[in-house]
Amino acid sequence: MIEMRRLTPQDSMQARMLWLDAFPEDGDGFCDYYFARLFPQDQYYGLFEQGKLQSMVGVSRQKIHFLGKLLQVGFLRGVATWKSEQGKGYSSKVMEYVLHDLKKQNVPAAALKTYIHSFYRKFGFEVCSYRCWHEVRENAPLAGMEFYDRVEQVPERILKGICACYRDYTADKDFFLERDSAYYRLMLTEALELYDGVLAVHTNEMQRIDGYLIGFAEKESGKFRADELVCLETMHPKDFGGVAEKFNCSMLVYKAFDEREQADGMIRILDMAYFLRQKEQGVISEKGQIQVKDSLFTENNGWWQTDMNQPNSQPSKELSPGEAAVWLLESNGRQAGIFEEY
Predict the structure, then answer these.
(1) What does pTM read for this prediction?
(2) What is the pLDDT of the chain when averaged over all its residues?
(3) Burial of 206 (C-beta count, 10 Å sphere; 0-12/13-18/19+)
């Protein structure tokens, strides 16, 4: 007998066991951290067979800046099925269940990070951000740099300065994650406490933070890996090159966004009418029509006018809900920004 429902606190032990089966690498301590700190905050959905949790999908409510508007999305995580039960369609059933439930809650879009993009395209998702690893071998001087390796050491002024730096960095981008001081404190708890990482911030002559990185030394490779490195125009990633030498590493490697090398984040529109209403605020510059085909939500199907002043515009695109979101971003002429959680 198969049952699909939201998970309760009583299901957390089964969920934890399933997580470790699907993501054994998280036995390094992340699983314990996640189920203690983040799992209670997220909403999980599961497929049960004879009372056993066979597949699950988690949803974290996040705020995303999209074409100048702040909207709530369902950020999917923890998509997992027991290895012994894969191939039975369980994940697909839960995914459809989750998307329908989010739509009922008037959530206009869903998003996620993944390495298996082909699976999520079946549900209307499309890639909206790209990234790749870059190397810095220069050992630049560390003037103006502060370092923190424990969260309790990071003062509130630094957190606020990082937030301001992030806002300035994303000012020319049309798609990025909303963050505040509380978000960064939680993010740094994972990076610094769980992975023995470091926060490095650079303060300019005006006493404003104009660059920061969050990363850690990889003992095996001898590289300092910055999972996040943000620089304003007054800074360049190579200005952080000396961080590697400081931590006895041969080079700094960091993730660069907006480069079409490695597909990363994906998005799926759940409510086309919500997104196309943004044309009324003048945030969509593309003119014409798009045809949307949505196998899950028929109300999204049909021709959608993207320019109210040209009712007779010729058809231009035939898209899935995810492709429609990406098209709106690209047609506006700007870029997707930092999309991930740490």
Answers:
(1) 0.88
(2) 88
(3) exposed
